[in-house]
TrEMBL record:
Keywords: Amino-acid transport, ATP-binding, Nucleotide-binding, Transport. Residues 3-233 form the ABC transporter domain. The lineage of its organism: Bacteria, Pseudomonadati, Pseudomonadota, Alphaproteobacteria, Hyphomicrobiales. GO terms for molecular function: ATP binding; ATP hydrolysis activity; branched-chain amino acid transmembrane transporter activity. This is ABC transporter ATP-binding protein. Belongs to the ABC transporter superfamily. One of its GO terms (biological process) is L-amino acid transport. Gene3D superfamilies: P-loop containing nucleotide triphosphate hydrolases. Pfam families: ABC_tran.
Length: 243
């Protein structure tokens, strides 16, 4: 496993957002985390990234990183595309992209920037324009490009289809598959269950902060319990286990 998470817990005061979640991302694969609003998905990603205090164990490439600050996790090869894009709208497209390369000290930054522009021609055309003029889909592309400028081994993606038109949703998921085919491992949080299950190999379902199902995505797609958990039904928790 490239990423191993064991018994992760996140609390905000008296509120428990993530309760004892364990999951893994195999090297070169895509894993997805599903669940309704408030299930704890974003808190889980933020804890893995080191952006919010948590208990439990996080291991990356065989190393225990639970005590590492976020900057060290980025340097080790983890990057995140946050929910809502969170680009710096007062900076230009190129300045936003270069922010992603901030931890790097190698000579390949210019070449990687050119690669991002090849991947996203719209960004190339607007490289000197402020982020504020981009459409929602273009901002999402910019957020992905910014994360890729860190040269990650593992990319955490939080609701990449949120607020996008169907056309841009298709483009984003085509990009996710392309990045994975190029060897990038991805942990995908996504409310579009159908697309997430079609894209990922392994899946985890959260409900009220707890993992209630874990299996390969083909198994989850056939499980009635998945829909009960995803929709927050009153039925018993799923009993699907693996992978």
């Amino acid at each position: 496993m490239l990423l191993e998470v064991a018994n992760l817990c996140v609390s905000y005061g008296a509120v428990t957002a993530v309760s004892g979640v364990s999951l893994g991302v195999r090297e070169g694969s895509i894993a997805t985390v599903l669940g309704a609003n408030g299930a704890g998905k974003s808190s889980l990603l933020r804890a893995i990234m080191g952006l919010t205090p948590a208990t439990g164990e996080v291991r990356f490439a065989g190393e225990a990183i639970s005590r590492w600050p976020a900057a060290r996790r980025v340097a080790a090869g983890i990057a995140m595309v946050p929910e809502g894009r969170r680009i710096l709208v007062s900076l230009t497209v190129e300045e936003n992209l270069l922010m992603g390369a901030y931890p790097r000290h190698d000579r390949q930054i210019a070449a990687d920037l050119d690669n991002i522009y090849d991947l996203f021609p719209n960004l190339a055309r607007r490289r000197h324009a402020p982020g504020s003029v981009l459409s929602g889909g273009e901002q999402q592309m910019l957020a992905i490009g910014r994360a890729m400028m860190a040269r990650p081994k593992l990319l955490l993606m939080d609701e990449p289809s949120l607020g996008l038109s169907p056309l841009f949703v298709r483009e984003v998921f085509q990009l996710i598959r392309r990045m994975n085919a190029d060897g990038l491992s991805i942990l995908l949080v996504e409310q579009n269950t159908r697309l997430a299950l079609q894209t990922a190999a392994d899946g985890y379902v959260l409900r009220l902060g707890a993992c209630v199902a874990a299996a390969d995505t083909a198994t989850l797609a056939r499980s009635d319990d998945l829909m009960h958990a995803y929709l927050g039904g009153a039925h018993a928790a799923p009993t699907v286990h693996g992978p």
